[in-house]
Every structure is written in structure tokens, then in C-alpha cells.
Amino acid sequence: MHPTIKITAALLGGTLWLAAGALQAQTTPAAASAMPASPATSTPSATPAAAATASVSQAQFTTAVTNREPADDISTLDNSHTQVFFFTALKDAAGQTITHRWQYNGQTMAEVKFEPKANHWRVWSSKTLIPGQTGTWTVEVVDGSDKVLASKTLDYTAAAAATPEATHKVQAATKTTPPPAAVTHGDR
Questions:
Q1: Which DSSP symbol is given to 63?
Q2: pTM across the whole model
Q3: Per-residue pLDDT for 37 more than 50?
Q4: Which of 64, 71, 85, 159 has its CB 3.0 to 4.6 Å from that of 80, i.e. a possible disulfide?
């Protein structure tokens, strides 16, 4: 049988009191000597080790994420595109809550929370952009205590308008010309 401990909790005068009951299993002499003499004289448990401080080894805006990797690293995007991703590679973040805080011109628009399961973990979030919302987009990578671990900005700009003059130049440059006359080489 496995040893089990009954724990009773009582609230007395605003203070929480815990009392441990007797072990309900057979114990060996070595195990019995390792147990405290009585529940009242047990020593407090050791303080759990502090969680490692999470850090960011890579943070970037990208137009896509493929096979858990960013397709590119962008700092400007024109409004002919309506979706953008933010990719982050985290270190020592297992068991912590990490947030991508999306801000538009200084105003928080969305928060996406992640709970990494290992010390090296890659996460990404995406945002559908409205073409009329040109300006500065910022993503802050924030830990559970609201500490900013990384921050990047993206300039979302108006797409270049096609002018009749520019359109004419493009059409002129794409006109086909006949291939040159065939050239023959003589024997040497």
C-alpha cells in the first residue's frame, strides 16, 4: 500500500490551520524513523525553487509561419496585405504565461496568451488588419508579472496608388519586341 496523509483544514479566527493525520499504511523502520515525531513538530517544507526568468531569443513580424518558422522578417507592410504574424522563440518559459500584446498607435487591440510546455518554445499569433488602419502596430512580449521581454514595431502603410503615368510606363516596359535576327557562326 502507498502511504497517504489525511490533511484537515480549519479556519479559526481568520487563520488557516492545517493538521496532518496519521499515515495509513505499513511502514518500515527506516521509513518510520524518517517521519516526524508528531504532526505538531513537523518542519516546514522547503520553499519551491524560483521559476527561471523567461527570455526571448527571437521576435519578429512576418507574413507567414511555415513549419514553425517565420517566412521573413518585416518592419513595413502595405495595406494591400490584411494579415500579419508575430513570431517569438522563448527560452526558460516553461510553466509561465507569456502574452503577445498587440497595440495600434499606442492602444491595446488584442492580447494572446501562451503557456509554454518546455524551456525552448516557439509561439506565434496573427492579426487581421483593416486596410484603413494604417499606422504603427507594436507587439510586446510580456511575462506573467507584466514585464516586457521584447517589443517590435511594424509600419502599416497605404499601398502606392497607381497613377496613369506609372501605369503607362509599366505597359511600355512590358511590350514585346521581336527576337533579334538569327546569328550564324562560321567554322574556325
A1: S
A2: 0.60
A3: no
A4: 159
